[in-house]
Amino acid sequence: MNDEQKLLLDLLIRTDKFLKKRNINYYLDGGTAIGAIRHNGFLPWDDDADIYMTRDEYKKMISYSNEFSEINADLACFETYPDYSKTAARISDLNNTMIIKSDIFHGKANGQSIDVFILDPVPSDKIDEYSKNLCLYEEILTYNYVVNNRVYDYIDEYKEYLVKEKELGREATLKELKESIEKYSQEESDKFILRWGNIPMVYDKEVFGTPRYINFEGYMLPCPQKTEAFLRTQFGYDWYIIPKAEHQVNHDLYINNEISSNNYVNDFNEFVNEDEAEYNLKNRKIYWVENIGNKMIMDKVELLLQAKKLEMQFEMDKKESILTNLYKSKNYEEFINIMDPFIENIKTFIDCSYIPDIKLEIYLKEIYLLILSGRHYDAKKLYNLVKKDNNDNEQLNQLKDLITLIEKIDSYYQDKELIKVENEIKNLNETYNMIPNVINAKIEIELLKDSKSKNIDEIYSLCENYLQYFPNNYDVLKKKGDILYFIGDKEKAINLFKRVIKNSNNGLILLELKEKYDLN
Known about the structure:
Radius of gyration: 26 Å
InterPro entries: LicD/FKTN/FKRP_NTP_transf, LPS_cholinephosphotransferase, TPR-like_helical_dom_sf
Strand content: 5-15%
Protein name: LicD/FKTN/FKRP nucleotidyltransferase domain-containing protein
Number of strands: 11
Number of domains: 3
Largest sheet: 7 strands, mixed
Oligomer: single chain
Domain LicD/FKTN/FKRP nucleotidyltransferase: 20-236
Shape: globular
């Protein structure tokens, strides 16, 4: 942990005790939840902490808002400060100062903070209605910037609420909008929706339930009951993969660990004319919203130009014969390596609906090999790009069915529902033995059996056969190490584990090897 994370952990533990004392349930959220299950603590690059609460628990917390001084913190939210401009509340440390760019004008406690996000219960058939009302609520609440470009779809209603705000006042207008997103009870709803504008995240209600306690920097803190299912919903099937350095996201912020945020608040009140700033920012935002349509057009043109530039850089027309020969010679890893720069930039192509001019057979081979390499999540992205112009292609649809099956097996495997995994894979034909998700599941199931029924030779052969084609698949190499360790060849197993640690980006495997064998 760095110094900022140590202070943040201190605030998290103080908050945990404060909430538990008042029987208020919460869950670690977002990167904090990933950190808990993938690292048993903070993501190494993380600079904030997030928690979720159901709306009922949030209201309970609000009733104790005046007591946060007990832990030398302040609760900043719309309910405690009517001019607060974010849907997420903040439990802010009064011992230090941390200013995030988007919060610079609210003049409230700005120390190291925990963002508190609300889970609103919503019936499945009311999701669209809720999402629209949430969008309008957030855009009226947040006067200094556009939360989500979706507001452009409701621009007339947005303007009507701006008129209402002038006539009835901010508090009354927001009260009306807030009631529109809080009208469903938990009992009548089967979903929770995150009250956060950037992404209308929808979860099955059963994902949360009774908190599951996970080690976080030496403390047991609550996560959603079905943590892995929660992370799949929020981050996708590759949530356990540690991203490359350039994709490790942190925030645009200023931190001073020596000065209380009270100093910032006092200076803000003395030197900033908040009414004038709010007036100017609101006027700026109206023009911002009106210009979203033009900006979206320009953004799409820019993305298209970027996509065509990338297409030229890839020079796939020169590589197609190389790729075809690699596939014929079963040099699958090299095929994937050549295609990886394309896959790493696939979001650009998806966002502007542009399919580079590559033969369909190359796309189909790449989707299949991504599945065989264990990257079914990347295979799905490529499928989603290609399907637009090839929806009737039988081979593409078969690959889609295969991705769906692997997602199902992977979900059960992540959730440790091994009986369901076994039921899914026992009737698969031998061709599926080349899929690492199936291999890993078979090995784990076999090693858990009693000694008499274990078929070690069979599962070892599965590993060896697969590694002929994908010698650098570190998930399967780790499973091979598990088998070697089990049969007593510990030295060879440890050497394999060290190789895995050096090269793997699978955070769950790295954590297991650290905890089980004290390897770093």
